[in-house]
Amino acid sequence: MIKNLAALDNGPVTVSGWVDTVRDQKKVQFVVLRDESGAVQLVNPRTTDAEGVVVADEPASTISTLSQGSFVTVTGELKHDERVKLGGIEIKLATLEVVTVAIPETPIAADSSLDKRLDWRFLDLRQPKANLIFRLQTTFEHAMRTYWIDNDFIELHTPKLMASASESRAELFEVEYFDTKAYLAQSPQFFKQMAQAAGFGKIFEVGPAFRADPSFTSRHSTEFTSVDSEISWIDSHEDVMQLHEELLVAGFTAVKEKHGEEVLALFGVEVTVPSTPFPRIPLAEAKEIVKSRGYEVPRDDDDMDPEGERQIAAYVLETFGHEFVFLTDYASSIRPFYHMRHENDASITKSYDLIFNGTEISTGAQREHRIDILVEQAKEKGVDPEEIEGYLDFFRYGVPSHGGFGMGLARVLMLMLHQASIREVTYLFRGPTRLEP
Ligand code: AMO
């Protein structure tokens, strides 16, 4: 790989990569060769005859015809030279083999529309910024996984084909399943709770989730990677929030250490490891705060709308200097039946949404584990207990107090890197009109 060349001594090398630029000068040719690890300058002094006239020999003739993006393998002499701007090394060419000639007309350019770039995603992903996004994602996931494993969590892989909905029926993908119907999992919700009935205690899953959401917002996709965790023996949703904080601190610390400088250089963004505890504000109070800032909340009895989320985030940043805020105690009327309600006020739930840089990245809650109350809450929400018999059975055999959260991985990356759309940070985006590539 190109990045390993810097550590080698002067001498013969072989390297492959994509042609980035060609400077075809009279006496010398320069080629910048790139791979995912970096770039190196190739130099080819032209051969001249006795009268000083340039001779058309190899590899000079081939270099003159190279199109950008062609994939080549070269051999030559590596030389360390501080004067070379690109990494202080260059390769004096001996041979150049063209493996693939790129089609000269590149279908996308830096100013192409996002949609066009997504059509040609494999070319789009060659940009160093895109490459960094997915290396960063790997680091972030790895750090979370290390946290879970160090803390004795069990990793689950739950089925994505289900017999019933786990969240709102409105966003459900139905698929033919032999002579019956199946649904794509919107969340591992029921299965991660089942693990508590099974006595697993602490679990996590990073896997796909599907939502038949027809909207074209910058933060929704029809398939996304959901980061889920669920724990038993909790006193309240406060325990879930603490787990969530520790996990994010682990993830952000690793990202800052490994990629902080690159993120600053390529995205102009400083990665900040959040301090704990994150601010916590009950939803009703948050609405009063944004109203006092002059923002008209569309509905008092509904979720915080996207502009409200931005307003409360701005308030939290100004007041506490924090990029995260837990909005807690959502009204029971706008939460799923499985959220536990407060003992002294059943109109509010022991739940939260986590807002990061002005957008929701997660929902979490303590779950209702008492079967009678759970059935009542399901009926009240219009969920037919017969349809979720299998789920309700968990609670007929005793489940400890428990809670957990689901977090959209791409949302975290989008907000961490100040990207305008989830499409930029999703390897292959899926939306209402996009099923390819
Ligand atoms: P919720 O429906 O709020 O909660 O989803 C949890 C988180 O998943 C992400 N998310 C999405 N990301 C991209 N595109 C979408 N269409 C999309 N929908 C959701 C968001 C969101 O905050 N079962 C509960 C979680 C729990 O209580 O454990 C659930 O799914 O980041």
CATH class descriptor name of the largest domain: Alpha Beta
The distinct bound ligands, ions and cofactors come out as:
aspartyl-adenosine-5'-monophosphate
The CATH topology of the largest domain is given as BirA Bifunctional Protein, domain 2
**What is the CA–CA distance across the termini?**
27 Å
| Largest sheet features | 8 strands, mixed
CATH superfamily of the largest domain: Bira Bifunctional Protein, Domain 2
Instruction: Give the beta-strand count.
Output: 16
Mean pLDDT: 95
CATH second-level architecture of the largest domain: 2-Layer Sandwich
The strand order across the widest sheet is 6-10-11-16-15-14-13-12
Number of domains: 2
Outline type:
elongated
**Radius of gyration, taken over Cα atoms and rounded to an integer in Å:** 27 Å
Query: Level of helix content?
Result: 25-40%
- Number of contiguous helices: 11
Subunit structure: Homodimer.
Function: Catalyzes the attachment of L-aspartate to tRNA(Asp) in a two-step reaction: L-aspartate is first activated by ATP to form Asp-AMP and then transferred to the acceptor end of tRNA(Asp).
GO molecular function: aspartate-tRNA ligase activity; ATP binding; RNA binding
GO cellular component, one term: aminoacyl-tRNA synthetase multienzyme complex
